[in-house]
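Morning. Coffee machine broken again, so started the prediction first thing and wrote up yesterday's gels while waiting. Chain of 200 residues, entered below exactly as on the submission form.
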Amino acid sequence: MYITCLDLEGVLVPEIWIAFAEASGIPELKRTTRDEPDYDKLMKWRIGILKEHGLGLKEIQETIAKIEPMPGAKEFLDELRSICQVIIISDTFTQFATPLMEKLGWPTIFCNSLEVADDGEITGFKMRIENSKLSTVKALQSIGYDTIASGDSYNDLGMIKASKAGFLFKSTDQIKADNPELPAFETYAELMSAIKKAMV
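Came back before lunch.
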């Protein structure tokens, strides 16, 4: 029994914060989990920048509404879901992910939630569980599933390494160099082929 666990941003859809950095003209917001391994530190820093600029959930959601899945992502996901169960495990938030899930055909996603004031200011965030990606993969294994995992960032390495098969996808040169034992792919066709081989 296999479940494939995929990261969302950088794997199926473009990075939300990079898109918002470009839309808002705030280049500092381009920093992502590819650059900062400590997600808690990264999010607190982002919230501080939003507050400084008087930006909230509404402005970010307006940017998200314009984001389209990466070319071929929905087709890849549709094919993958026809051969095994798939869960997207992301450190994003339900308030960001919902419109993107609609564009991807409503796959299952496990993510976190934002704390938002009545005026739309993002005041904090609530992580579903500590080390959510690794914790989720271990929980799935504890109920009898073999996991296959793929992602692009530092926060994906735990679930990738803990899985029966794990792959980097569209990752950075630094992460690939630091983890030479992990197969790294750039196209959905390559990733699909590797996942199918892992299931044999």
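The two ends are 11 Å apart (CA to CA). Going to sketch it on the whiteboard this afternoon.
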